[in-house]
Records
---
Amino acid sequence: MATEPKSTRQRLLRALSTDDRKLGVTLGPSTVWLAMLLLAPLTFMVTVSFLSVDESYNIVWEPTLSNYTSLFEGQGAFWQTSFFESLILSYQIAAVTTVLCLVLAFPLAYLLARRGGRTFKVVIFLVLLPFFTMYLVRAYSWLLMFGPSGVINDTLLTVGVIDQPLTLFNYGKLAIVVGLTHAYFPYMLLSLYASLDGIDFSLVEAARDLGASRTATLRDVILPLTLPGIISGSLFVFVPSLGAFITPRFLGQGKIQMIGQLIEKRINSLYAIDYGSAASMFIVISVVLAFALAFRYVSIEELGGV
Amino acid sequence: MATETAETGTESTTGLHAVLGHERQSALLGYALYGVAGLLLVFLWIPLLVMIFLSFAQNSSTLFPFRGFTLEHYVATLADAGLMGSLAYSVQIATISAVIATTLGVLASFALARYEFPYKELYRTFGILPMVIPGVVLGIALLIFFQTLLGLSTGFWTIVATHSVYGFPFVLLIVTARMYTFDTALEEAARDLGADPLTVFRDVTFPVLAPAIGAGFLFAWIRSFEDFIRAFFVSGIENPLTVSMFAMIKYGTAPKMNAISSLIVLVIAVVLAVAMNVGNVTQYVAGTEESADE
């Protein structure tokens, strides 16, 4: 920067001379970028969900609700349609995954917050590495583990624990929940850790000294203080799990269809952007609701745990 | 939940407790805590270790019957021109989009941490949205935006645009966290001593922020490199690495998949180890300013 021509430097300095300009220079580029590549596409998607597409994939600019009604049309009542079943199934899987992540991550986050030094660094490395590893690779590694002749069943058969492959370890709901937990667990861990790390643990000692049981201390002292971490961790696990595609695709092997797969299929095989947009709205609305719910308990600054 | 406060440090031994029983209880809880943590690490690592093992084995899809070690899968992988082309393609995309995300993210962090402006919270919400919104939705929204609304053909630049938006929140979160703890008195001192704003930035602000910026860049880079679903929709006829890998599994050539996946795990392990030791990335990723070496 020191070798830049004087004029550029002066121009830059002038550009930064007032507060308004500082704000323009710092905030302007990202605002334009987000407006162009996030706000505009999402707005367009909402619009398309109320429009239809002709045979040559051109948009017909006439408002209609047909995409939404067609989501719930089919044989039988609306709760028997494949869309509704996928939606409910996705919510169930995402909820179970979130709870599992929370229960599993809490003890580890607690341990990390109480122990510093060498152990901390090694454990964090061991947790972060799978986190940084390709999502696709992690889903694939579970593809190897599950299945009628997958590593788990095959090993149990070879060792002689079982005579026939267990259906439990076939591809299906359990495999998907395990895969999603493996994928999003670190988000929960890091959010909880950020929260637990800020706790003044002398409060815990005080509670114990004053005769509170361990359970009472956990319930009345530790959990309330960790609430922001629990909320933001749950948000970061629940929302992506809800719209997951690769994990249910690999680990459901066609037997399970989550909403993300359903949307993908319609878009990729038919380019049914009207139907796909309308179906996506159910994910978008869920995201908005999840955020709104989270903001009732934590401020947005506290959400930035990851 | 049986695993809770095990190390309350110097607990006063009130006479009510049988001392031995109390300590044993604490010790048991401590072991349970370590046990759960250990099992978790096993859970996180087992599938990856199995995959790495299989990448060196003749039998490439399951452990038994074990037919011996080989490097042929690696040789075949590295000789696969299509796959290596995809790798190079993904590296280019990740690098360009991470540069964009980092530049925009660092600038925006200044605005968020230093200045007041209307709709700040709204801006912040939109800023972290790309990270949270499911990839299927973001991918499709951008696909129909590029293809149907703008009439663009999808390819290299649409993936770069998509990933630059996707990587932005990671930079924003990491850099703003650092900026909130920044002591602005340092900058004032430099200014009082006659430095102009650019000099202050170069000699004072930037060195303090550099590790966080580095961590943000690394995060954005990896998020772009590993992304499948967004790239899948906006890649057109091109094949980034993840899209090639996805196609490989679809047509059932697992041996190369094991090898390329293991190589990725290895490379990322090295990068992460270096970043943690040189840049001390941990504290930015973990969102804490506590020194990891304390």
---
Amino acid sequence: MFDKKELEKIKQEKDKWEKESYFKTIKKQPERKEKFENLSSNEIKNLYTPSDISNLDYIKNVGFPGDYPFLRGVYPSMHRGRLWTMRQFAGFGSAEETNQRYKYLLEHGETGLSVAFDYPTLYGYDTDHPMSRGEFGKCGVAVSSLQDMEILFKDIPIDKVTTSMTINGPAAIVWGFYIANAENRGISKDVIGGTIQNDILKEYIAQKSYIFPPEPSMRLIVDTFEYGSKYIPRWNTISISGYHIREAGSTAVQELAFTVGDGIEYVKWAIKRGLKIDNFAPRLSFFFNAHNDLFEEIAKYRAARRIWAKEIKKLGAKNPRSMLMRFHTQTAGCSLTAQQPEINIVRVTIQALAAVIGGTQSLHTNSMDEALALPSEKAVRIALRTQQIIAEESDVTDTIDPLGGSYYIEWLTDEMEEQTYKYWDRVEKLGGVLSAIEKGFYQREIANAAYKYQKEIDDNKRTIVGVNNYQIDEPVDIPILKMDEKGEERQINRLKKLRENRDNNKVMRNLERLRKAAEGDENMMPFILDCVHSYATLGETCQVLRDVFGEYEEAAIY
Amino acid sequence: MERKIRVLVAKPGLDGHDRGAKIVARALRDAGMEVIYTGLHQTAEMIVEAAIQEDVDVVGLSLLSGAHMTLFVDVTRFMKKKGMTNVLVVGGGIIPKEDVPKLKKEGICGVFGPGTPCEEIVDFIKKNVKK
Amino acid sequence: MNDLASKVLKGDPRSIARLITLAENNDPKAAKLMKNIYPFTGKAHVIGITGVMGSGKSTLICELAREYRKQGKKVGIIAIDPTSPFSGGALLGDRVRMTDLALDEGVFIRSMGTRGMLGGLASAVYDVVEILDASGKDIVMVETVGVGQAEVDVIKIADTTLVVVVPGLGDSIQTLKAGIMEIADIYVVNKADRPGMEQTVAEVQSLVDISCSGKDRKTPVLTTVAKENKGTKELVDEINKHILFLKKIKQFEDKRRLRYEAELVEIIRKRLMNLIFDEKKLEDTIERLLDQISRKEVDPYTAAEEILGKILK
């Protein structure tokens, strides 16, 4: 992209500048750090010039938005045409309470829904299961049956607004609840839109809300790809996630490498099943973290898009829609503090800015009380306003990929891509993704990165404002969300009545048919839907699958 | 005599967030303690049984899902039932300040929330472990 | 007899755990208690399990324990992990793989750090085996740190030693050849559902053919998929066969004798180290001698003779 002679001249001038100005200055006043290393331990230079991206081929490597390799964005007009979806992750207590919160958020301008489920639901247990003790509604909404899903979305126009559901182990069943509820409301399957997270690989690696072992879990996931591509065309049947990997302590490069690597693995499994890549790949979506290092995050998203496009093309895709990587972003929960929580608003703003400039399709901004409790109404409203200010007042969306061409950003994008391939080589040598998971490779990398980060904070080499520096002694004084104490009792009674009033013979028959399907090799979705429609509970349906597939147990890796 | 402080680090209930528990485990190891990690999804019975067999000096409970008032208290009550009075119990995770006094009353002697430096936990244990 | 000792003999977990701690810490109270329980030892079958990290030892032990429980046997498990030479601390994570056994009253699991001892075992492991034995366990399994060629001490303590390998660890068999591979009474190829299984079995088998030529017993090579509980029953049968074999050729007592010798040496070593370094009496002498050695006024041999002379008087 640059003239060779020009580059030589620039290099010489830079050397001159360093010798004459830069070194002199830092001798008098040393730089604030001995080495400037970013969160992925990449050393960052004082200045980037065209020499750093001398091999960049604009047409081949950078290109145009909406065109392969999609580095600058997945759509031709990006946020100039349509803003990202403002989709706040929400859920707590019982379906009634969460339904209220959804209405509040929609009223205040969010444009998509996102469901947080409580731990029992995430693990496929009903509220009245012994393992659910103490956990009802604490970190998300409890959904034990189709009835709860009906209440959750009461009076919400799910034919007009899309819903993302963060559910993994029992994703197929919870998706079944959503589909069945829509059907019962007369909304056809080809109208409803949304996403199920349904990414089991990152559960083994980071989030740990797995149920079954890898092979049957992968089978269930491909079942959803198949079913979705045939019957629910507007649904993203997976949200391949890096968010949780990052939250568990990984670096940005690891987040990038492990996530996109997981994505490729899913595609390979689906192809092995016999699915045609262009039939399901357009409905694969991604989910990334937005952490503190503004520029590293932007470079990360760009690199992700280009890597995905290249790899999907290699795997035989012909439809460009298969190669473009759409993603949702959430700002980094792990970066927020319990001390001086108001200043979390500032952190979230920087992180949200990274996601927007990085070209996200959908965004959740965390609330300032993240480290204390689930979001209060005020806190979540401010989080939503943060997105709205960026959208309406900052003008960053006036042009597409504004940092494209920055010497630093293009260099960092290339660097992160290169390091991703290096990680993939290591995974290959370990026998592939599932084998590397079993050997604890990812978990060890993440644990080491997490420990390094914490040590830097404890040794005061890294400042966290308000925590190890700039502390105050005032008590925290912000409203904290309080949940309905009667919620658990109400839920348990509701479940009891449900089990009494439904046609239990029908439920038994459907569960039995699901068991047979699970033992065989048919697509399980239709059988799951039958169970769901007859009001079999989440726990009952999951138990059938637990019986057939067994449960996964992990080793301890530090 | 070669005495080491033995610590059980446990994740009660369904919460799968183990980043903190693992970091604390490593920090305790680096401070010379023997750390037994139970893994995820532990019930109170499992935690106390492990504490007995491993004859630990400290039980550390980590929880980020909000269920601490039930699950931490389950553990200390079960320990009391088994007559385990010499074991120091500490906890960490996402625990609102207003719950801390209640937890202390139930026998959880130290509660270490987000932002606690590892050294603080190490020092607390060294100071409060029952000889 | 001491109250704690009699509780240990009755199988009370609290007491067993307490006595293990006393033994591990080299507590002066430990010796008397160990003397009390010693007459009640000798019944348990001690199985040593070693192999590289990632071979699935812990899962295998969990499944073996389950199988033994099915047969009505009581099981003790000692899981050893390395102590950090820098901090003196240890991360003991083997219990995680054995959550299923957590609430079984017939199983006792104890995690131990090596605490500076080389060879793959912990110094107090002999005591712990005796304690679990005396408390009524029929089987005591010792999971060692088995990462290389030096960690072979397990043969000193076990009646039957299992060496666990897995397919796909590259040329690990080659690297393990000298040392660990030779100590096996039974080879186990775990994770046998992985690619490369046949090749691994063949490699181990050829090792066996060479090393066992002309011997009374050919070391068996078994395959297991521990996480699916495949092959465990056959492994238990093979372990039982091994003990019968030892008794038949009258080598069982010889093997036990090796253990007693190692145990005796370890007790003596600890006592000596105690006398020399832990009790205050010789502290000044040692400091003085170290100063003299630093100034090259005295050599270490002469210094040692002086110290030994003092304690042997």
